[in-house]
Task: structure prediction
Amino acid sequence: MAAINSNFLKLKAGYLFPEIARRVKAYGEAHPELAGRVIRCGIGDVTEPLPPAVVRAMHEAVDELAGRDTFKGYGPEQGYEFLREAIVEHMYPGLEVSADEVFVSDGSKCDTGNILDIFGKGNVIAITDPVYPVYVDTNVMAGNTGEADANGAYAGLLYLPCTAENGFVAEVPDQRADLIYLCFPNNPTGAVATRAQLEAWVRYAKQHDAVILFDAAYEAYVRDPSVPRSIFEIDGARDCAIEFRSFSKNGGFTGVRCAFVVIPKGVTGMAEDGSRVALHALWSRRHSTKFNGASYPVQKGAAALFTEEGKAQVAALIDHYMGNAALLREAAKAAGLPVFGGENAPYVWVGCPEGLDSWGMFDKMLGEAQVVITPGSGFGSAGEGWFRISAFNSRANVEEVCRRLKALFEA
Ligand code: MLT
Result:
């Protein structure tokens, strides 16, 4: 009989968002008369159509594939040069990133999970709590943890609590870590890290010879000019950090799928014989073995985001979602709830009313207001007592959510 990867059996419950979808479906079946009223502010999935510049570029690319002279088969695994050059020019000006340090992929969820392929066993892995569940679950699958306790915390991970007291930005720990997951602007709390806080992390990583896995999928939402958008804005990060970015939340590519990883050539890990090995070379080997590149029309569409027209259309999309975030912040505040995030991120992080835990608030919002939110405890035990409202929605839906929140708390 085929042996399985028993690490999967350690995973607690299902992945958070399918679990929420399951509960919403069950609610709709139990209350068919209210199912049409449900507004989804749970999963952070974009709602607005693709920027017209992207649509045109993708159509043109498909037409190229339709002609014998312009047809293309397999592309370069690492991504087409035209996209990698555009990424460097428009997203990393003056930051020394070179196009051959960029690896184009089909999503940051896959990249942040797959990156574990190039790391060995025995690393101390630091993970914030609350956290994007993919970082935890993929470490469980890879065998980097023990069993979960009653709170869902896995033995062997170094959890870094993020609380209202530290503004939901983890402080550097006293003990050593080898791999550190940071996500700014943060999913789920919407927190951003100051330059000084990121400098402290880079100092820590260099002191412990650790690698920072920096997820900047929400970079486009940073409004405060003093907040770094990339870890590579911090001196020394090119020696110790890998950055993940995505076109999902800026260009609306959640369904199109395109993202990238930047691995500077100077970032190294240690082989069993103690020698230093460049992570860039390992990822390049992994990528070319297990991935055949994002599709040509998708990469053409992504490159169109960097044209003048594309940039203006992305700015309008971000303005739209951030306008939603501002409305949701105000409504939650007016309801008398503690509110974080939503100023440099599309997520508003809200404290539950007295007497309700995160899933209790989920049930109340769904049952009494037909609004889907994400329970904070689904992101880790330190998220208990909080919930996340996603600003990815139409303006009309967000205004309706604000009205229902008001009614709920006036009642
Ligand atoms: C979320 O809701 O946290 C996001 O949709 C997750 C993701 O981008 O995979």
